[in-house]
Each structure stands twice: as structure tokens, then as C-alpha cells.
């Protein structure tokens, strides 16, 4: 069966993995997921990620979750733009999540980046998810 929202699936795996106290989780590879993981790593929400080569020309993403004092670093992770309802914003109307403490992951013409980097580059785009 095909998956209608692969990025939403990855975010749910991260959320569930942190609630279960896992050190690493795995999900199927895609460039979109890899780029979102790169943003999460740059912003300090995950320790890192690795691309694992599987047989039959397939790949997996292995995501290393991050904890401080036994609590997950990610307190909230939500999908904003869904397949049934895309959410776009320009740089002037881009919302701030938790007054700038949270991060919006935005897909722009210059690539996937955090909201503060999109504001600095003066570009808008599709809001993929928000993380706090």
C-alpha cells in the first residue's frame, strides 16, 4: 500500500520513538526526509542521521534522537502543510512559532531551511512542519 504522507510518517516515527525512549529510529529514505533531518540536526533537535544502503537499491534513514536529563529535546513536532491542504507563506507573513523559540521547516525555491534562515534569505515557501 502506498503512503499518502511520507513526511508525516517520519515525524510520527520521531515523536513515537522519543516517547518510547529509543536512541535511534529508522524510516524509508527520500530526499525530502533527508533535508528535513538536516534542518533538525542543524537546529539541535536530533543528534544526527545516517543513510543506510539496503539490498535491491533501497535506502533507509537512521535518525539518532537527542535527550537532555532523560527528556526528549523535541517537545512538539507537527505537520503543517498536508497533502490535502498545502500551506504557503511569503517572507512578510511568515509566522513565528513560540515567539521564535520553535522552528518552522520551510520548503523554499532555495531548498528546505529553517524559518529564520528563510527570513534572512528573503524567501517564502511551503511550511512543512513546526518543531519545539
Architecture overview:
The chain is an alpha+beta fold. It has a single domain, classed as Dna Ligase, domain 1 (2-Layer Sandwich). The chain is 26% helix and 36% strand. It contains 3 helices and 10 strands; from the N terminus they run αβαββββββββαβ. The strands form 3 sheets. Strands 6, 7, 8, 9 and 10 form a 5-stranded antiparallel β-sheet that branches. A 3-stranded antiparallel β-sheet has the order 1-3-2, with helices on one face. A two-stranded antiparallel ribbon has the order 4-5.
Main attributes?
Dna Ligase, domain 1, 5-stranded antiparallel sheet, alpha+beta, 3 helices
CATH structural architecture: 2-Layer Sandwich
Average pLDDT over all residues: 96
Helix content: 25-40%
User: Judging from the principal axes of the Cα atoms, what is the shape?
Assistant: globular
> Count of helices?
3
H and E string:
HEHEEEEEEEEHE
Q: How many structural domains are formed by the residues? A: 1
Strand content: 35-45%
Amino acid at each position: 500500500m502506498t503512503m499518502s504522507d511520507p513526511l508525516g510518517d517520519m515525524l510520527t516515527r520521531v515523536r513515537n520513538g522519543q516517547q518510547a525512549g529509543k536512541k535511534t529510529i529508522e524510516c524509508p529514505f527520500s530526499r525530502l526526509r533527508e533535508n528535513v533531518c538536516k534542518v533538525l540536526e542543524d537546529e539541535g533537535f536530533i543528534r544526527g542521521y545516517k543513510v543506510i544502503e539496503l539490498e535491491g537499491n533501497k535506502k533507509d534513514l537512521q535518525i539518532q534522537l537527542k535527550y537532555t536529563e532523560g527528556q526528549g529535546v523535541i517537545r512538539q513536532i507537527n505537520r503543517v502543510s498536508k497533502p490535502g491542504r498545502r500551506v504557503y507563506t511569503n517572507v512578510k507573513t511568515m509566522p513565528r512559532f513560540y515567539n521564535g523559540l520553535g522552528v518552522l521547516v520551510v520548503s523554499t525555491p532555495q531548498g528546505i531551511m529553517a524559518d529564520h534562515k528563510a527570513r534572512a534569505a528573503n524567501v517564502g515557501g511551503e511550511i512543512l512542519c513546526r518543531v519545539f
